[in-house]
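ENTRY TYPE: protein
WANTED: fold as tokens:
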Amino acid sequence: MSLKCIGSFQGVNNSQYIIVANEQSEEYRCGLLTTSPDQTISIYFSRDSLCDLLSEHGAFESYKLKPVQSQSVASSCQFPIWLQGEYDTLTVTADWLQYAQGVQGTVPVLSKCVQVMDDRVLVYSITKCGEPLGYHCLWFAPRSESLIEFKTTIPQVNLFPNACSADSEFAQWPWTAAVTNNIMPSPCGIVGKYSTPPDIRTQECYNVTVDCENRSLMKITAAHCSTDTIFDSRLYQCIASWKDENSLYTYAIKGQETHSCFVTKFSSGQLYMASTGPHCVRNFNFSANAERTIVLEEEVSCDSLQKQKLSRKPAGSVNQLRSSQTVQVDSWLESASVPPIGKSAVDDLQWTSDPTNAAVRTLNIVLLVVIYVWYLI
């Protein structure tokens, strides 16, 4: 039987009551708490959620709980300074680490530092309810100023000195992501504009754009291939990116709540991309997860945009021009347009940038003078 406490209150004569839910039967019970001089706690439960007629003698069932001395972990060890702080699921101080598991119904875990070995920390953990879990090693991997990943070994009752030494001890546990409360933008790891290749444009087409100037912004749009009508558009702020084996991992946030890890891989000139949720899944199989994978190819690169900008610069020195071309770049569409230039600017460019044009003009004036003199004669 698993009982979950959902509330407590004080009754008449300072009686202490609790309301619990039986997670198996989905029933509610009222419980009366009493404490004896030797600190033994007795719980008297009613048949249902009513507390009015509940007493020590008329209880439906009762339990006695005796305090258990928790294992003492003596150590001068402290968690590394670079790890300490507030995260979405972690709180790390010098002496303790608290992990809120993020799954409904689970109890937070408290870990005490036992030994520090670079990026790995041997800890002794208990649940916040006091249930001992044992010794295990935590492996931390900072990915940026805003994100850290960690994984654990299997908790052991007795101290296992080599728990942090072998990578194989961590093999069966996935990496878990923890985001700091102070989020800082970070490059997304890719730049430019990517779109669905023409040969696979069937029903849904996608565009992924990472701004060339602000490389921490990523926009993903989905459209109907036949009409190019956009039915979904999402703007992400990247906060970390790193390579692990042959894959690139980009961690991004959308709004205040949505955390997403994107795993990408280049193969045969194409970019495979998938979201794996709030944690970054390793060895992701794109073929087996085709419904979550989008296939893209590079449409516009930042290098090509830079060349377009340079090719639009007018010849000659800037001082020779009375008006110059202005290139306007839409950072999301990654396209450039040149506004029309006034005729006077073009004329100035022709007359001042080419000495041959000046010589031709002088020759024309000389010919006019000769013709005029001949006419007078």
